[in-house]
Amino acid sequence: LESEHHLSFNALKGAYSAGTICFQGQIQGVQIQVLIDSGSSDNFLQPRIAQCLKLTVQESPQFQVLVGNGSALTASGLIPDLPVTIQGHTIHLPVYLLPITGADLVLGAPWLKTLGPHIADYAVLSIKFYLNDKFITLRGDQLAEPGQSQFHHIRRLQHTHSIDSSFTLQFHSIAPPSSTAALDSLPVDLAKLLHKYWTVFDEPSRLPPPRDQDHSIPLIDGSNPVKGIIQPSTSPFSSPVLLVKKKDGSWRFCTDYRALNAITVKDSFPIPTVDELLDELFGAAYFSKLDLRSGYHQILVHPEDRHKTAFRTHQGTNYTSLCWFFFL
């Protein structure tokens, strides 16, 4: 039975896609969102609409509706003759109650079959059919750019189940952290040092300040970006990125700068050997080490070299880095 009843994932979420047309409709004068979806086996209505309008619902055997993402929803209740007004035209159709999100009403294959021959133009989002001795054309809503909404409006939509969920984002202050119990437990001189240079010891959450030595990327004379990695961008450079899982399960963002490094002037400063370092430590009684938190991100890239750090995402969008990236 499950295979006989199905709903496309776009219809479940009320999303715009190549096989859907959305427009505004009315039931008993109340505005609703209507979606035409040829991939849905039945006509479905959001139960809260029936409850809000106190529509007469007949009992019917419950059945499972298979959704395009592999999940299943339970349909319960039937309205055998629901009048819906769309752009001045009234249609009557049977609908099952199904807890869909996004659209309030999904017009599936059964309604499309009642139209007989019809023309659905998904390029301009319109459907044309013959009804009551005349041709009717319904024009779908164009996808609008998202706008700003007040938080209390979003909360109200969530309470009416018009949206799945909402989240609150809290922005932290960029002011220097005040003295804490952790600093008080440290030696006075060390606590003063940590507080004075908190921008270095704190976990990076913003761009580092400009310093005397910003990271530069000098190229070998005559070098050009390697062929095959150039994408349409404001920068002629474009390096691929990938995610590598760490031991703790988190992800490391990696940029493949091998092509860029191959045409970069090499730093001639020799790396000291272990034996030389041990000789330097001979006779010393106190030792110190420096381990900056995300040290690469605490160094700005020189403005003239930032375009060379461009990397592309899987969507083809290019970005450039303002601070020093790993693997450069």
TrEMBL record:
Q: What is the lineage of its organism?
A: Eukaryota, Viridiplantae, Streptophyta, Embryophyta, Tracheophyta
Q: Look up the coiled coil feature and give its residue ranges.
A: none
Protein name per the record: Reverse transcriptase domain-containing protein
Q: Which InterPro entries match?
A: DNA/RNA_pol_sf (IPR043502), Peptidase_aspartic_dom_sf (IPR021109), Rev_trsase/Diguanyl_cyclase (IPR043128), RT_dom (IPR000477), RTL1-rel (IPR032567)
The residue ranges of the Reverse transcriptase domain are: 244-315
The cross-references to SUPFAM superfamilies, in alphabetical order and at most eight, read:
Acid proteases, DNA/RNA polymerases
Question: Could you name the domain of life of the organism this protein comes from?
Answer: Eukaryota
Q: Which CDD domains match?
A: retropepsin_like, RT_LTR
Recorded hits in PANTHER family, A to Z, give: LDOC1 RELATED, TRANSPOSON TY3-I GAG POLYPROTEIN
Organism of this sequence: Trifolium medium
What's one Pfam family the UniProt record gives for this protein?
gag-asp_proteas
